[in-house]
Specification:
By secondary structure, this protein is α/β, with parallel strands linked by helices. Helices cover about 45% and strands about 15% of the residues. The chain is built from 9 helices and 8 strands. It binds BIS(adenosine)-5'-pentaphosphate. BIS(adenosine)-5'-pentaphosphate binds near residues 32, 59 and 172.
Length: about 220
């Protein structure tokens, strides 16, 4: 069983959706985006800082994000295996993670890269609704909750993220292309990369990846 996993892919590729499904296999889900949104909801200093970047689609500074992940990844529950969703996103983050995983002896087993074309990303982000309590993602056309506006998992209210608009998405896609996409080569060189086509439906994708992780 592959235990320590990075989920990579552009905004809307399905990282969060897949992570919520993979939790059933025993992984701890660590999403830097969810951590920042929690901090924003709590009104903390970290939240105020993160919000000033996220609402425009910009990346939160490396030193802030790296510090957050270092603390979380060192906690005891991560010993059973973790899914890093949305981290690393820059070369300094990937280098810091490499150093940290050596120090705490929790090496990355595989990097799952989700491929998705741009038109589909725009469609998914434009119709996404997210649970305010647990962060579970839905879609107004292709992944509706059982009760309109209510999360199937926890009963929380669904809302549209303030970075899910055309302007912020353009910025997010350009950060992805310039800063995150080069990490595909970084992990390919280390023999850790596994590519999957996220255009297939989320159930088929989950089955394929769950089988791969168990092999
Ligand atoms: P984050 O929350 O990580 O956002 P993201 O990477 O832009 O990814 P998304 O959450 O938009 O998409 P996803 O791939 O999880 O797709 P989802 O499963 O929801 O980060 C937000 C912000 O925080 C960043 O912009 C940045 O400012 C900051 N930040 C976070 N991490 C940072 C870092 N490391 N460094 C610096 N700043 C950082 O699915 C999308 C939609 O598609 C849903 O509606 C879903 O129903 C649908 N869908 C999913 N999979 C499928 C499928 N297989 N088939 C059909 N539909 C699908």
């Amino acid at each position: 069983m592959k235990r320590n996993i990075i989920l990579m892919g552009p905004p809307g590729a399905g990282k969060g959706t897949l992570a919520k499904q993979l939790i059933a296999l025993g992984y701890v889900h660590i999403s830097t985006g969810d951590m920042f949104r929690e901090a924003i909801k709590a009104g903390s200093e970290l939240g105020k800082l993160a919000d000033s970047y996220i609402k425009h689609g910009d990346l939160v500074p490396d030193e802030v994000t790296i510090g957050l992940v270092k603390e979380r990844l060192s906690q005891d529950d991560c010993a059973k295996g973790f899914l890093l969703d949305g981290f690393p996103r820059t070369t300094p983050q990937a280098e810091a993670l490499e150093k940290l995983t050596k120090e705490i002896n929790r090496p990355i087993d595989v990097v799952i890269n989700l491929d998705c074309d741009k038109n589909e990303l725009v469609r998914r982000i434009g119709g996404r609704r997210v649970c305010k309590n647990c962060g579970a993602p839905y879609h107004i056309d292709t992944f509706k909750p059982k009760v309109d506006g209510v999360c199937d998992l926890c009963g929380g209210p669904l809302y549209q993220r303030n970075d899910d608009n055309e302007e912020a998405l353009k910025v997010r896609l350009s950060h992805y292309t310039n800063q995150t996409k080069p990490l595909i080569d970084f992990y390919q060189e280390r023999g850790l990369l596994a590519n999957f086509d996220s255009l297939k439906g989320s159930e088929a994708l989950f089955d394929e990846i769950a089988k791969f992780l168990k092999s």
